Amino acid sequence: MDQKNIRLILAYDGTRYHGWQRQKNAATLQEVIEKKIQIMTGEAPNLIASGRTDAGVHALNQVCNFLTHSSIPPQSLQKGLNSLLPEDIWIKDAAYVPLHFHARYSAKSKRYEYRILNREAPDIFQRAFLWHIRPRLDVESMAACLSHLVGTHDFSSFRASGSGNANPVRSVMRAEIHGPEKDRLRIVMEADGFLRHMVRNIAGTLVEAGLGKITPRRFKEIVEAKDRRLAGLNAPAAGLFLVEVNYLSSDLS
Question: Cα-flanking dihedrals φ and ψ of residue 125, to 5°?
């Protein structure tokens, strides 16, 4: 039977998972989904994601793919997986794609959002999906900082310590802040790729600007310094969402 390549689009609440990538003695998204695929197909898949979200990070449209010899149509696979998966993971779409399609290496850009609740009182029902900041943030200052990120830069100042990314250069197409909308702010970033913890480290540094601890000029200097020690804290994983992954149409059909 011919080998097929199936693309899945997932939404998940990452709160109770130790990230995407399978690990020993820890529940991960990859492992949970692979086990359900194996139940349906009888094969042990290697599920490839567009990116390895960290522990506690969420996704609205994570893209992944796997190779299979199974004859189960994608729509039937989608329905069956959704009946097997826990309630915090949902398969939004399943489709055949060309054998050359690779969820990670075929991706042309990704869009993330970091979400902040900016008011005195917390939202106890949304605490797994927002970073609660009590003092009023200066949104204009944060927007001015973000303007320094658009373009191609070395983002060493915002990558995780000990990161395995050999090349810290990334091209950012979009860096914006939206809100406040009902006391909520959304930091939106789209790039050809992201370093580990890059968005969360940027968010942590932006909050320092919003609190008046650094100026937009100082933020620019931090970017140019390529030194993680100068940037702000690593913002909590709860506020981060993978929103969209973009591909060329030729890679999908």
Answer: -90, -10
Backbone angles phi, psi at 203, to 5 degrees: -60, -40
Q: How far apart are CA 43 and CA 84, in angstroms?
A: 16
Copy the structure tokens of residue 38.
């194996």
- Those residues whose C-beta lies under 8 Å from the C-beta of residue 140, and which sit 6 or more positions away, are none
Instruction: Respond yes or no: is residue 54 known to be catalytic.
Output: yes
Q: Look at the alpha carbons of 137, 175, 55, 230 in this order and tell me if their dihedral is positive or negative.
A: negative
Catalytic residue among 2, 54, 88, 123: 54
pLDDT tens per residue, range 20-43: 998 988 899 999 999 999 999 999
Q: Write the pLDDT tens digit of every residue in 226-247.
A: 999 999 999 999 999 999 999 9
DSSP letters for 125-171: TSTTS-EEE-SPP-HHHHHHHHTTTSEEEE-GGGSPTT---S--EEE
Altogether, the residues listed in the chain come to a count of 253
